[in-house]
Specification:
The structure holds two protein chains of two kinds. Chain A is an alpha/beta fold. Chain A is built from eleven helices and ten strands. Chain A has helices at residues 45-51, 80-86, 101-105, 107-111, 117-130, 134-137, 150-163, 180-193, 206-212, 230-235, 240-246, and strands spanning 5-16, 19-30, 34-38, 61-68, 71-72, 87-90, 168-172, 198-202, 215-220, 223-229. In chain A, the strands form two sheets. Chain A has a six-stranded mixed sheet with strand order 6-7-8-3-9-10, with helices on both faces. In chain A, strands 2-1-4-5 form a four-stranded antiparallel sheet, covered by helices on one side. In chain A, a hairpin with a 2-residue loop joins strand 4 (61-68) and strand 5 (71-72). Chain A is globular. Chain B is mainly α. The chains are: A alpha/beta, B mainly alpha. The interface between A and B is medium-sized, with 25 and 19 residues.
């Protein structure tokens, strides 16, 4: 692989109570690239994604290693709050807090204790620009984030995640609740973001994976079936299951 | 029968029954107000009660009721809120929390006279508080806790799970998510629930007869020292509330205008509770408006 590895999952297995839902998944996520996790509902792709920054701690048992800068962050003694600041997450539904746009963006920073107004102002502009929202909201930063459209809210949530300057951003079907115009705006945003961040996203939308992702991992019933460059997966899949899924035979 | 006919019939029955309920409640309310309001005057509200002569007022009883509500809320809101936060944010789904929920439900259907006698034995006699506002407030707290806990828990649960996830995803601890995201979002519901429960305990009599007492000794509204025995703020003084006053005037009142006094008191009680409800709604509306601005 020509890219350095930002995050590595090694023999990941996830259990909900007694029931195993993810089996022996090993993946190396390349830095400054977009990796898409695809697969049918129940294939375990979201579970894998959410395990990567320990969001499954309360609901599932995750076994295996998740290596980040030489540290296995799947160990109990690791500070999960620091992990989540380094590995941020954007959810399916936009989740703005009932605050102003400005306060939403700097929420994580404020919690970290940053008080300097210049730093905050500068970070708001930088994050909103990166999320391609600045031009639309720069004159209404003090207004409620709830007044924004769904697509704008989702880009605001991306900006909020960017503002804590993570290295990796996990996205769980970030556009599934949005209309096609907002979806394509977010996809454009992703391509710009990968210069600075590593992006790992779950998507149900094949076109989205083929359009924006550099790498694609196909999962089926808790197993990783195939992981390769997106072009290879879509044009020349090595596994029959991948070919069947992509051609719509199941899923 | 045709579906349309069934639909018409069902709608008719539902409307009739709802109409009966509405009619009963409205006529009760109208009766209480119509018989009571003529007796309510500025003098009635601002003079103290008489024991044997006509023309007594309800100044002290009205103040005692309000003060008792405040004392009760000071004790019960923090307790109920903490319990609700535990139940909604931290409690796992197991036998122990199931037992806890069951206990809260049982407690909420406890007859208030039982709570009153319990308060008499424990607070008044055992803890030596005598008949006092404090003993009354503690008895009312027992009555209030289950309902207030439930309404706080409901308010907390109505905050979407996604909001919590978003906070956790930013690297916030659970406690911070609870205090910075969940609690502010649930605040309108919590305040509304608290005020409504305040209205409910405002009209409570049975739990107070043996705890806060049935007498109202002369109190001094100019004495702001809560430790002075005559002070209106002293929580250790016995205090007859409005609802207890209505009960007492009717059962053993010696004043010739007992009927008028009790009617007037009932009207004042109802109107005050109505005000509680209106304030609760308005506050909830204001906070919601402020949050979504």
């Amino acid at each position: 692989m020509q890219n350095s590895v930002a995050l590595e999952a090694k023999q990941l297995a996830v259990f909900y109570g007694e029931k195993q839902v993810v089996y022996d998944v090993s993946l190396k996520f390349p830095a400054n690239q977009i990796t898409a996790l695809i697969g049918a509902s129940g294939s375990g792709k979201s579970t894998v994604l959410r395990s990567l920054n320990r969001m499954n701690d309360d609901v599932a048992t995750v076994k295996g290693e998740i290596n980040f800068h030489g540290l296995n962050i799947n160990e109990p003694k690791v500070n999960v709050y620091r992990v989540r600041q380094q590995i941020g997450m954007v959810f399916q539904q936009p989740t703005p807090f009932p605050l102003s746009i400005y306060e939403n963006v700097i929420y994580g920073l404020r919690l970290a204790g940053e008080k300097n107004k210049e730093v905050l102002d500068q970070r708001v502009e930088e994050s909103l620009r990166q999320a391609a929202l600045w031009d639309e909201v720069k004159d209404q930063l003090k207004e409620s984030a709830l007044a924004l459209s769904g697509g704008q809210q989702q880009r605001l949530c991306i900006a909020r995640t960017l503002a804590v300057r993570p290295e990796i951003i996990l996205m769980d079907e970030p556009t599934s609740a949005l209309d096609p115009v907002s979806t394509s705006q977010i996809e454009d945003t992703l391509v710009q973001l990968k210069e600075k961040f590593t992006i790992i996203m779950v998507t149900h939308n094949m076109q989205q994976a083929s359009r924006s992702a550099d790498w694609t991992a196909f999962m089926h019933q808790g197993h990783l079936v195939e992981f390769d460059k997106t072009a290879n997966i879509f044009m020349n899949p090595q596994e029959q299951k991948t070919a069947d899924y992509l051609s719509g035979k199941f899923g | 029968m045709h579906p349309e006919k069934v639909d018409k019939l069902a709608t008719g029955i539902i409307l009739t029954l709802a109409g009966i309920v509405g009619l009963v409640i409205l006529s009760l309310l109208a009766y209480i107000l119509a018989t009571g309001i003529p007796h309510v005057s500025w003098d009635f509200l601002t003079s103290s009660a008489e024991s044997f002569r006509a023309g007594g007022g309800i100044r002290d009883q009205l103040f005692n009721s309000l003060y008792l509500v405040v004392l009760t809320m000071i004790v019960s809101v923090p307790l109920a809120l903490c319990a609700a936060i535990y139940l909604s944010e931290y409690a796992p789904d197991n036998r122990w929390t199931g037992l806890l929920r069951l206990a809260i439900e049982v407690l909420s259907s406890l007859p208030s006279v039982v709570v009153g006698l319990f308060g008499y034995l424990v607070f008044v006699l055992q803890f030596g508080m005598d008949f006092s506002l404090l003993a009354g407030a503690l008895a009312l707290t027992i009555l209030n806790l289950p309902i207030l806990t439930r309404s706080c828990e409901d308010a907390l649960r109505q905050v979407p799970y996604l909001q919590r996830q978003a906070g956790l995803g930013l690297g916030m601890s659970k406690w911070r998510v609870t205090t910075k995201i969940v609690l502010p979002a649930a605040l309108p519901g919590i305040i509304t629930g608290a005020i409504l429960s305040a209205g409910r305990i405002f009209g409570e009599a049975a739990a107070l007869i043996y705890t806060a007492g049935q007498s109202s000794p002369a109190i001094d509204y100019g004495d702001w020292n809560p430790f002075s025995p005559a002070s209106f703020l002293n929580p250790m003084r016995p205090a007859e509330t409005l609802a207890v006053h209505i009960w007492k005037v009717n059962s053993e009142g010696l004043v010739p205008d007992a009927r008028a006094v009790s009617n007037g008191s009932a009207a004042v009680l109802i109107i005050t509770i109505l005000l509680f409800n209106l304030v609760a709604r308005y506050l909830g509306y204001l906070i919601k408006k402020k949050l979504t601005k």
